[in-house]
Amino acid sequence: MSEITELPTPPAAGQALDAAVSSAPERTRRPARSVPWGSVALTLLGVVVSGVGVAALRDGNGWLQLAVVVAGLVLAYVGGGQLLRRRFGAGFDLAAWLCTTWLVLLLFAALLAPVLPLGEHQDIAGSLDAPILAAPDLLSPYPLGTNNFGLDLLSRVIHGARASLVVSLGAVLIGTVVGAALGIVSGFFRKTTDVVIGIFTNSLLAVPPLVLLIALATVLEPSLGNIALALSLLALPSVIRMARASTLTFVQREFVLAARAMGASRMRLMVRELLPNVLLPLASYGMVMISVLIVAEASLSFLGLGIQPPNPSWGNMIAEGEGNTFEEHPHIVLVPGVVLFLTVFSLNLLGEKARKRFDPRQAKL
Amino acid sequence: MSSSSALLGKRSATEPGSPVLVVEDLRTRIHTPRGDLQAVDGISFSLGRGETLGIVGESGSGKSVLGRTIMGLYTDGPVTTVTGRVTIAGKDVHALSAKELRSLWGADVGMVFQDPMTALNPVKKAGVHLTESLRRHRGMNRSQARARAEELLNLVGIPEPRRRLDQYPHELSGGMRQRVVIAMALANEPALLIADEPTTALDVTVQKQILDLLARLQGELGMAMVLISHNLGVVAGRADRVAVMYAGRVIEMADAATLFEAPHHPYTEALLAAIPRLHQPPHVRLEAIDGAPPNMIAPPVGCRFAPRCRYAQDDCSQVLPVLDPAAVDGVATPGHSFACHHPVNGGRH
Amino acid sequence: MAGSGTLHLRPEGDQILSVEELVVEFPAGGHTVHAVSGISFDVLDGETLGILGESGCGKSSAGRAVMQLPPPTSGSVRLGEDELTGLNDQAVRKRRARMQMIFQDPVSSLNPRRKVKDLVAEGPRIWGTEVTREQIESVLSAVGLEPAAVWDRRPHELSGGQCQRICIARALMLDPRVLICDEPVSSLDVSVQAQILNLLEETKKRYGLSMVFIAHDLAVVKNISDRIMVMYLGKVCEVLPAGRLADRALHPYTRLLLESVPEATPAGGSPDTGTQRFTGELPSPLNPPSGCRFRTRCPLATEECTTIEPQLREVGDGHYLACHNSGPGAAVA
């Protein structure tokens, strides 16, 4: 045995010790030693720098202001991360917490959009007195600026989140429910059922998604529900395949056989024994899928096939930057673009974290 | 066997008489998200040429971690903390660089694992597993390596070795695969072979064939062997000395006959009593050991076996017994040592 | 050996389980795997039958075919008065509930997403019976678990031994008459194995069960069984009272098994007892040898073994053997 690559790596050996580990108590918190002045200073510096960026550089170059604010935030992130790790132990993941915060804020803002004191988001008549194409300035009445009709971008981004989130969540929900059902049925019955569902899945995969969406968009009314339905077709094939694959592994486990021996019907086996096990990996995959579908919805709207202006969605907001507008007023594209980026990034990061956490292979440690 | 006599040439590297493997106060700590796990807790022994040490213990006793730490698969780093010293053929394993370690594995020590399927790469033919290492470590050319690989397969008792060289692992039976793994471990005539549960995945008839094979090869090549198993029976007929592990520590060590005849540690005694015997009549009630092994992140103070021990007294839960030589009726019994305050079968320190 | 025959079946009487001419075959890539090729056995009320054999001998397939999971290719399985084969799904489901199964991997046989209290109550719930907390607690205590300590736990939080106890508790909830144990202790440590074997014996007495105990470990099977059936490649070699296994077994395959067992005794596992006489490996169940299936590895094999399949014949009190060349009255002694 001379090949290092052919030897099982040490962590694998740790599995033998799982029994000993599994009953271990929670790790005790280390008492804080001296105050970490370096980290405190770094955090404060970061906060001050971004504050200065927002407040003091209002009249200067927008790019300079942006750069200063971002630099301040990075400093605060590094310093704050050190502080929090010290307080809550090395396992503390600041990025995950920030992502969660962002998603929660976004969700609440979207839910409460009608009652929040926001500017006008779609009625052009209501924004006649507003400046058009105003640059973002957090301390002004239009914190993220306005578009070429004088509509408030903050308000539009939040109202747009409603459309984007409803469509993508709806699509993922439909995709997961239908996909899980088809996948479990296919993996459980095998034979003809499996072949038929397999052909269906493969034909969905064979059509380029954009072509499929465009075809659907021409047939269906561009309502939120219909768009969600169309997008769910994108999620469907991979969900079916995942559900089928995990059904195939779980159906061989003895607990399914044991339930059968106790007299469980096929329906009960699928719903009570298989579904809870199959759903878990699907749920974490769903997080990632939401982000893909937000982007897909944005592309549809960008092509003019999704949410119709002046109703805002992140996609058609980005589309407003067509032509020269983007060069002269980059914030028109940057504001919805950054929000889209942060949301997709957060969903991906959390989805990945959830997948790792619930992965049965790592469940024990 | 002509091939085996050829194998005997290289032994001069280790002087006769000096031990092949020396383990001194070895401790392995594995860092887990729930805390540090003391998997191996202060183990010392040495092993000479041609000698076999059997290590038995239940799952979680640290026997596999011990084997891997001896190999240098667990090193002192961010995942594990290793203290103490392992010397194989005069080389301090944990002082070696990654490159030196690889050549140690190639030349001085071989390892056989429980599951031969995971030790073999499913997309490589049996022959390739052997020739690759021969060509890399011994600078053989293609045809030399192939001839030698055939010789090795013949040595481990595989019929039609030439045909087997071109077969993939899945085309071989479990016993054949384990023979290929053994051939790989022996390719460079190691001074030490570590066999970690080599027969656990195999049927009882095949198990016997593999154990016989290991014993024969050890005799022919003069290797030292560490045979790790959960099965006391596997170790019984094959090891010169047997070490019983419990919760990361060796609690008793003796030659096999003494250990099975008159164990001094209550755990060894209980373990032997828990095994159903072929010569007992049916429906004999077995002496089960109540309770479960301790949590190795926060092991009990004192003797680790005390909470399950029927002879435990107050001092057992306060003072950790150390492995000391044994004596019966004031007469020292050489080679037998145990770690217990209240030994059984007349044992004294 | 590796023969067939029904001579060892006992006259109609106290049989709780009767299996006749059980055949299990399944397709594998265009070929047919002959997993079980016509075995018969019966289990009396309160008796434990041990089925002994190495991997690939068809002992697990036989156990599952008895449970109709999946139903056998042919043959008859009677549980008490009820014939189980040839029935529709619904009828089988109901009757088979009086027969429960314990599997090799206790962790895998429990749904990882469910808590102990729900796992144990699963059986009655399938049949629409709600169980009281007291019922669950009493069955948990009966299998040696502290109900309060495991109540809300999930399988991965428990040790293998604890999981196996829960599997036994779950089976008991359906008030079975027969327990089919498929290698129930082979994934457990020695000390836990003894606990579970003792528990199975106690449970059997307490609940008046009969058992079919399938395993590869000779000493374990001997310890728990009244009668032992040795299988090789889908056929029966020898049926004998458990007490005769160690020194009165006659079949060359049983002898081979006995000689291969490493025993933890001062004398050691006695290497080199002449097992070199036995050569070769298990033939493929896709294309089993003609005549006696063990003949390719048997030191006693003769021309007759190639052509004529040996039938079980009585060679002692309750001892049956399927071999031309061993035992009293053998053609070649």
Kindly describe this structure.
The complex is a heterotrimer of chains A (365), B (349) and C (333). By secondary structure, chain A is mainly α. Chain A has helices at residues 10-13, 18-22, 37-56, 62-88, 94-112, 153-189, 191-206, 209-219, 224-251, 254-261, 266-302, 314-319, 325-328, 331-358. Chain A has two domains: 36-92; 153-362, Orthogonal Bundle (MetI-like fold), CATH 1.10.3720. Chain A is flat, with a radius of gyration of 25 Å. Residues 1-32 and 360-365 of chain A have low confidence and may be disordered. With 349 residues, chain B is α/β, with parallel strands linked by helices. Helix content of chain B is 32%, strand content 24%. Residues 1-14 of chain B have low confidence and may be disordered. Chain C is of the alpha/beta class and 333 residues long. In chain C, 29% of the residues lie in helices and 23% in strands. Chain C contains eleven helices and twelve strands. In chain C, helix 6 (160-172) runs parallel beside helix 7. The two termini of chain C are 15 Å apart. Mean pLDDT of chain C is 86; it is low at 269-277. Classes of the chains: A mainly alpha (365), B alpha/beta (349), C alpha/beta (333). At the B-C interface, helix 9, helix 10, helix 11 and helix 12 of B face helix 7, helix 8 and helix 10 of C.
List its salient traits:
heterotrimer; B: 349 residues; alpha/beta; Rossmann fold; 9-stranded mixed β-sheet; 4-stranded antiparallel β-sheet; 32% helix; 24% strand; disordered N terminus; C: 333 residues; 8-stranded mixed β-sheet; 12 strands
